[in-house]
Write a structure and sequence with these properties.
disordered N terminus, myristate, mitochondrion inner membrane, 3-stranded mixed beta sheet, 2 domains, signal, rod-shaped
């Protein structure tokens, strides 16, 4: 905020000077519009202060980009957690249904067995033989149910294993992406530029609100410092 306040003060000072605004690139010159009835001040010139602060606009764009990628990572993490919850719900549903099926089969088998025993007590030899055959069938049915039970448990174990593998892979991918984003933006950490001159210029403008030209020397030093810092950063590839 201090940087942009200083920029506003400098632009106001340039407007009061009624001077020629020169572009940063060689060979390009832009002349400010002078209102009718007001003479142009000879020998006065000022820099295009807005272009001097392009480095801060770059940092702002990098921050927006970083925020967008972090939001994408957050959405991926929420999707992963939602998928995990759905898998747990499916496991619980399958386990519950398997239990209900087995319980119904056991209840049905017990009822048939009880009826067979009662008939055997009151029936003739033939009826007892039929009951014995039926009991044998029940034993076979029980063995079949045990096989189904083992099969269901095996399928459930595989489902839990796949769920664990999926969660592990998703977690690793999320952590890898988070590490990449952290490493990518680690080198874009920003630090104040010419902080001492910033404070001096701000103090000068506060003390000389009606005489802004008295702060022109500090403003020139600050612009020179910012330009030097900008060239140094470009030379380092930053």
């Amino acid at each position: 905020n201090t940087i942009f306040e200083i920029s506003s003060w400098l632009c106001l000072w340039a407007a009061r000077c009624n001077c020629v605004v020169r572009a940063d690139k060689p060979g390009e010159q832009q002349t400010s519009q002078v209102p009718k009835g007001r003479a142009r001040t000879n020998g006065r010139s000022c820099w295009n202060f807005t272009s001097k602060f392009q480095i801060f606009e770059v940092n702002d764009e990098e921050l927006k980009k970083r925020i967008a990628e972090e939001l994408a990572l957050e959405r991926a993490r929420r999707d992963s957690e939602a998928q995990k919850r759905r898998l747990k719900q499916e496991q619980a549903y399958v386990r519950d249904e398997f239990g209900k099926i087995l319980e119904r089969e056991r209840i049905s088998s017990n009822e048939h067995l009880t009826r067979a025993i009662l008939r055997e007590r009151a029936a003739t030899e033939e009826e007892r033989q039929k009951a014995q055959r039926f009991a044998k069938q029940l034993e076979e049915k029980d063995r079949e149910l045990k096989k189904h039970d083992a099969y269901y448990k095996e399928q459930l174990a595989r489902l839990e294993e796949r769920s664990a593998q999926f969660y592990k892979v998703t977690t690793e991918q999320y952590q890898k992406a988070a590490d990449e984003v952290s490493a990518r933006f680690k080198r874009y950490e920003s630090h104040p530029v010419c902080a001492d001159l910033q404070g001096k210029i701000l103090q000068c403008y506060q003390q000389h609100a009606q005489e802004t030209l008295s702060c022109s020397a500090l403003a020139s030093q600050y612009l020179h410092c910012v330009n030097h810092a900008k060239q140094s950063m470009l030379g380092r590839g930053g």
